[in-house]
Design a protein that fits this description.
385 residues; mainly alpha; globular
Length: 385
């Protein structure tokens, strides 16, 4: 999550706000929590419940491309690349810092040990934290890869998607925004073919698109393909967007997201291309449609408006703060032999689910929003006055 990141501050005052897209991003973030809760009880990607939660990242990337294009495409005559990067850093980086701080704290609580129980010195943890603040990825087996399971960001695994989100923003500012609509469509088509080939061709080893979180094997290639297609098609849609008439867009799209991201693995693993087709269709076809429908719809009552606003507000903080506590949950569930079952861990999954929602809201109100407000006033508004 990524991403990924719609905020009222990202839009000019004259543009309408896509409230339903905010809400859909929040629904996808909640599905990520469920996906990670059940991750601790799977022996492989094949037998995991809520199996396709990793596809939320692709949905986030489509959203990000659509919103960045909508918010900034017509502002480059008065906005420099430096201003663009400042705005994106202010929007994204405070929560990145907070996520890694929580990751370091929970790592120490866990005992400052790798998954194989070997100890990690405080100096390496602090060095990993410092590198994480600058989104410097950890190579597998390096000293700053302190958890020992190959993650780019071992103090907060999901931050890998923010690494690619930043790449997407850099590509947009330097290259993508300059492409003609026809050239952008060609890029979307080519990257879509590459993404489908990656998924169906089983480059991940399990016929899925749950890649990008590590620097090992084909992860970087897969992560870049996920970003390039999803971000580019979102940008393309923003250029050609003409809303369609649809009632109940938020509820229809939310239900679709829940179903798509909770689907079991397709097949038994003997024909991984089957699951690869599912992932490719979701990412290449269905997610862009859902973003288009979400952007077309409007909330028509106060209840729906409050729900979409709340979900949108907490979505990014929730994505960035939940996983450090998942590490603790996994360590506890695996601390005994045999490992605890999901039923045996009750009510901890409920506490984690709702506790992370509460934590995300508190961090939003008492950290993220005040920090962004201060940084905006200090580095953007003051310059514009």
């Amino acid at each position: 999550m990524s991403e990924k990141k719609i905020s009222s501050s990202a839009f000019s005052d004259s543009k309408p706000h896509y409230a339903i897209l905010d809400g859909l991003r929040g629904v996808a973030a909640l599905m990520v929590i469920l996906y990670h809760l059940f991750e601790g009880f799977a022996t492989s990607p094949i037998d995991q419940r809520f199996n396709h939660g990793y596809l939320a990242v692709d949905f986030f990337f489509v959203l990000s491309g659509f919103v960045v294009g909508y918010a900034y495409d017509d502002r480059w005559k008065t906005m420099s690349k430096k201003d663009f990067f400042k705005r994106r850093l202010i929007r994204l980086h405070p929560m990145i810092v907070m996520g890694f701080i929580l990751g370091a704290i929970t790592f120490f609580i866990q005992g400052s040990v790798k998954w194989d129980s070997s100890p990690v010195s405080i100096s390496w943890v602090l060095l990993a934290l410092l590198a994480s603040f600058f989104l410097i990825p950890a190579a597998p087996g390096s000293g700053i890869e302190v958890r020992g399971n190959g993650e780019m960001y071992p103090l907060n695994g999901p931050a890998w998607s923010l690494f690619f989100e930043y790449i997407g923003n850099i590509l947009y500012a330097l290259f993508l925004r300059r492409l003609s609509t026809k050239a952008l469509a060609v890029l979307v088509a080519l990257s879509g073919v590459g993404l489908a080939t990656f998924a169906i061709g089983n480059f991940s080893g399990y016929g899925h698109l749950g890649v990008g979180w590590s620097m090992a094997d084909y992860n970087l290639i897969g992560g870049f393909l996920r970003l390039l297609f999803a971000f580019s098609i979102g940008l393309l849609m923003s250029r050609n967007f003409k809303p369609v008439k649809i009632k109940g867009a938020f509820w229809i799209c939310s239900l679709a997201i829940v179903i798509l991201l909770s689907m079991p693995y397709v097949g038994d693993g003997s024909a991984p291309w089957m699951n690869g087709i599912y992932d490719a269709v979701c990412t290449i076809v269905i997610f862009p449609i859902l973003v288009y429908l979400g952007a077309s719809g409007k909330t028509t009552d106060k209840g729906s408006s409050r729900i979409t606003k709340f979900l949108g507000d907490i979505s990014y903080p929730l994505y960035m703060v939940h996983y450090p506590f998942m590490y603790l949950f996994y360590a506890w569930a695996w601390s005994k032999e045999p490992h605890l079952t999901f039923a045996q861990t009750m009510p901890m999954p409920f506490i984690l689910f709702f506790g992370n929602i509460l934590l995300a809201y508190l961090i939003l109100k008492f950290y993220d929003e005040p920090v962004r407000k201060y940084l905006t006033k200090r580095f953007i508004l003051r310059r514009e006055q």
